[in-house]
Fold:
Amino acid sequence: MNIIELTVEINNGERIDKYLSQDENLCMTRNSIQKLIDSSNIIVNNKIVDKKYKVKINDKIIVNIPDAVSPDITAENIPLDIVYEDNDLLVVNKPKGMVVHPAPGNYSGTLVNALMYHCGNSLSGINGVIRQGIVHRIDKNTSGLLIVAKNDISHKHLANQIKEHSFKRKYQAVVYGNLKDDEGTIDAPIGRHPVDRKKMAITYKNSKPAITHYKVLERYDGFTHIELILETGRTHQIRVHMSSIGHSVAGDDVYGVKKVITSLQGQCLHAYYIGFVHPVTNKWLEFSAPLPEYFTDFLSKLRKQENI
Structure:
């Protein structure tokens, strides 16, 4: 049983099933939420509620997620680029195109399949079989560094650092256009898109604060190479924020321009730095991963302005 506790921060009067289905940390459909309500697994202010209950500010919600009857997730001998490993965690440099964890219709070839082969039974189980060891995620077509927890104690410690924003992440990206300023900050809340539920959007309804800092590294004709530092870790945060100011990430086929640079095979976005406190030793650790080949090749083309 996985127990998640939430506090309602905005008094929007929405039905509880709709409200919880928009919580990016739960990542559950409205239908799944309704099933939990029907089985008395959602409690508000120490009382069982029905689907028609409308949330109020400061409501204390407990979501009990029963252990799933999981599909057979098999260990697969997939090469991993391991940057660091000890008895409690490992840091992996995920390649572009690899999905982090299995999902319906996609139960093989993921990072979790590879981790199960490499680590055996030494992975945290807080997020269930499908997300063994996964503390945080990056998109399928984003490359870069991820921390994986080998036990539940490490998982909880690392998850708290993310929640408290003491977990440091830096990215590099190539975006469309020429940014006006050499440095800037985007402070705009992110939530589910009001129409397309598969997308995120800047919205002041059912959203969470999101802050992204950017710095120009190099300018080209029609593109800019930038560094980004996240204060928060919302789903698709960089892609949504950069698109919102008219500088979407090159190659992004969801938030970017209509004419996508197909040769990139996804967004030109790399999580190149990560820093955190080790959950057992309490020592500060930091790691970096060089820009991958797809990224450096694109930069070379931009410098020459050919075949883009």
In short: The helical segments are 16-21, 30-38, 111-119, 152-163, 237-244, 293-304. Residues 152-163 form the longest helix (12 residues). The domain at 168-275+282-304 is CATH 3.30.2350.10 (Pseudouridine synthase).
